[in-house]
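Predict both folds.
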Amino acid sequence: MSDTIELSASMRRLIVYGILFYFALFAYATLAEDAMAMLVTEFAFGVIAVGIGAILYREADEPTSVVTGAAVCLIAGGVLQFAHLVSGLVVIDLASTLLVYAGIGLYIYAAWNS
């Protein structure tokens, strides 16, 4: 049983470009102190988290694997990011960030142990 997944080259590129887009947008919004760009950055954070989580969930071998756990954390984190954008509650933003970090950590763990 392997907890890693095999993604096509185009899927890997899409993920990398999405993450690079997020960081570039975040850098611009921070340096320019542009509130609208920061709002778009926060929305992109949610979209990327849900997108990567969905890819991992679809490709996971078993419903109880570490990769599935990573996918669920990423999807939940992305959904909470959208809830934060609607509500403005900082606690929801923190929970979103922690879930995304947990999802990334679980995937790194799965890749490390494969």
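Second protein follows, with its predicted structure tokens after the sequence.
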Amino acid sequence: MLIKILGSGCAKCNRLEQLTREAVGELGIAATFEHVRDMDAIMAYPIMTTPALVIDEAVKCSGRIPSRDEIVGWLRG
């Protein structure tokens, strides 16, 4: 599973990455993380605001920090 955090590296982006890593650990699944900070790469996705969470190239959330339960649901999905 490939998980991307889209954002400049601000506190919200880092919090999203932390929550996602905790959810992955809770589920015991194998995942590769990539923090995308390059604006051109971020703009390639259909998002208007960061932070954004992308799981296996599907945008799951943007512009907010989802709850850990939401993230767990997307990872199971």
